[in-house]
Design brief:
five-stranded mixed sheet, 184 residues, alpha/beta
Length: 184
């Protein structure tokens, strides 16, 4: 490869690479093509519970979840944040359009990390939530983070990881309370 010096810049006369790029460089380039899935969910029950004097409590609103997740992704430099939203869907099952769209992206290998506000936003079925966190996400090399629960699969030995299963059980239990009160 011959180099010519022209006006303090270097130009190569042969643009063909003589050596293949390093594996790390290739992986870094591909990593930037992947997205960060920011998943928001609000059930009809959550929405009813958030009404106070005719006004929606902003703490659980979709807009607030989006703000929290986007800020977290930006502060932690996660690439290409993309929202997946289920507004008015129960977390007791996973047949939700936003979740299914996110799952399709995960299975296609286009997601590097999935972030939710807390574990209950991902779902309120402790068995299935655990299955996604412990099997599906790792199978596709997806890191999962629940911001307010301080849960991050990058550190499986943290105390918060140990407590996640208990939190998932409580999330499922709380989803059953309205049904028990109404006699269903």
């Amino acid at each position: 490869m011959t180099n010519l010096l022209t006006y303090d810049t270097m130009e190569t006369t042969n643009p063909v690479l003589a050596v293949a790029p390093l594996k790390e460089e290739t992986e870094m380039l591909r990593a930037t093509d992947k997205i960060t899935a920011l998943y928001c969910r609000l059930s009809v029950e959550d929405l009813k519970g958030d009404k106070k004097g005719g006004k929606e409590d902003v703490s659980n609103s979709i807009q607030n979840q989006k703000m929290i997740l986007f800020q977290y992704a930006r502060e932690n430099r996660f690439p290409n944040p993309t929202f997946f939203v289920d507004d008015g869907y129960s977390g007791t099952n996973y047949d939700r359009p936003g979740f299914q769209a996110m799952l399709a992206e995960i299975e296609a290998g286009r997601v590097t990390v999935c972030i939710t506000k807390d574990l209950s936003r991902l779902g309120r079925n402790s068995s299935l939530t655990g299955l996604y966190i412990n099997f599906t996400f790792p199978k596709y090399n997806v890191r999962y983070i629940a911001v307010n629960d301080h849960f991050d699969t990058i550190d499986p030995n943290s105390t918060d990881s140990d407590i996640a299963g208990i939190k998932n059980w409580f999330n499922e239990f709380f989803a059953r309370i309205p049904a028990a009160k109404s006699g269903r």
